[in-house]
Predict the 3D structure of the following.
Amino acid sequence: MMMRIATYGSKGPQIQIVRNQKAYTKEDFVKTRLLFRILFLVAFMAILSLFYIWSRIQIVQYGYDINALRNRRQQLVEENKGLNVEVATLKSPGRISQIARQKLKMQPPKPEQIKVLK
Amino acid sequence: MNVSPVKWIKFRILCISLGFVAFLGLILHRSYQLQIAGSTRVDQLTSRQYKATLPISPRRGTIYDRNGKPLAVDIEVSSLAVHPRQITDAEGVVSALSAHLKIPTEKIREKLRSPKKFEWVIRRIARETGEAVASLKLKGVTVVSEYRRFYPNKDLAGNLLGAVGYEAESLGGIEMALDSYLKSDSTQVIAQKDARGRLFTPWENQVRSHDVYLTLDVNLQFIADRYLREGAEKHNAKSGFVIVMNPASGDILAMANYPSLNPNVYWKYSPEKWSNHAILDSYEPGSTFKPVVVASGLDSGKVRPGDSFDCEGGEYKIGKRTIHDHGAYGHLSVSEIIKVSSNIGVTKIAQRTGKNTFFETIRKMGFGTKPGIDLPGEASGSLRPLKQWSDIDLSNIAFGQGIAVSGLQMVQAYAVLANNGIRMKPQLVQRVVGSEGELVHEASPTEMARVMGPETAKRLTKMLEQVVEPDGTGGLAKLDGYAIAGKTGTAQKVDPKTKQYSNNAFVSSFIGYVPAEDPEFVIYVVYDTPKPVYYGGLVAAPVFKKIAEESLAYSGVAPSSSQLAKNE
């Protein structure tokens, strides 16, 4: 049960709220509000800190992942380069010319055999 | 005196509070010391813990031809090393390594017995072999990734490209000239590591090197190289070179040398086989220089195309010296003087033109100065100052003696005739591209000088076309379907022992441009001391023809129907 009663004390007239036979002054409510605010702030800071720590851990983990991907990329780049070199060697004019002349018995065309299409 | 309990409690609370405050103050003070005042030192200490500096093998960018075909490329290879003091099972290591490597087991044992901490076993083997050895996880054995320079076309343009040594140091040629672009700008990378030594952030100071695109066309290079070699072997030449250049842009499309160098195995070649004769050698050009004085005379107006000169029956005295022709010619026109290559004829043209005008034309054509292609050892030739010229010097220089030129200078000069009288700067580098594909440098055609009027260039072209007629000295260069403007050269070499002109050592050459009416190529073929045949018209002209024929076919330059009809 809640009641509102007026009292007169050294601090002048005060309104008190009586709830379940216990008297709460306005000061009590102010103090309680303040306490809740402080608790809320502390909880907020704690959550923020946890979030910060979590994000740092994530960054480190992503760092590992990025590094692994970078190494894999580098490996693929080198493999690709090696393949390009192989292609260049197989397509080298000397080799092609040798195959054309010796295996396929081909000859360079004469000027009158060339028709340029534009 | 009795202290009230309340006051005593309050006093104790105050003391404890002050104690806590003092303790907090100490902590704050220490924090300030560590994080603000001494932050640099702390940074250094922590950096050592979490930062790793990793040495990396130096890398070089790729050299491409103008069409993006690789001419020189770094490939990843493996090198094997051992730490002898860490090896506990020597025989196990020997048998494991010998199974993968083609080296004697005794050599491996010798490395393991070494008192040193670190010994290379073998360097620059295939990456796959290195990976196979690494997977064995042998204690005391390290597999290191390195890079090796590889030239897929072997000795094609080898003398021009140069080579790269074991520590990625450039050894001549393009590799040396463009070292600042090609070589990576760092030999280490910085990364963050965790307590186990694993790397967990991207590396700073990434390896960056640039790729270079040359103006060379690898197919034209092959054509030039093949026929140069054929000619050199047929005529037993000591050496030779071919340059192919686009006269309108100055682009060097091919630069072949004989003998040639395979940079993949550069250590097997003696120093003289490394020479890029096309740019290093200075020599007397002989008759190929004659068009220069004719151009000078025509352009200055002192000689007209219709003029004729008395060639004195083949002997002409100047002071104590007698100049000879190959034939006993009488009066010859300017065109005929070029066609039969009369020394007396060009001497008289030079005399009428005058020293000053002739000298000015020589300088404008680029002789006596480096063409500016920026390759190591680029020759500037040798041109005596005008005030030192005597009358005999005027005549000597007119027919190509008494002046030393390089191959590139000659090509540059004939490109003037092919390009309506304008001298273009010879170029070897087309562009430089960064590691992210960004353009770092791009060359563009550069006009160096207006040497003569377009009319003079056209007139000279017509005269040079006569050289390639069947009754001209360069008849063997004639190509069905195409008009060729060219000149033969057979220059006596100076005997180093007698210091006199030799009668059995010559520089044989042919230089020309094709098609004459709209030149696509200037081609210069030179052989040093061919034997027993040595005339330029017999040794170099046929090689020019073969190179021109295939180069034109490759480039899709159609033969002219009027030329084809003419030849029928």
User: Anything to note?
Assistant: The helical segments of chain A are 26-90, 93-103. Strands of chain A lie at 2-9, 12-19, 22-25.
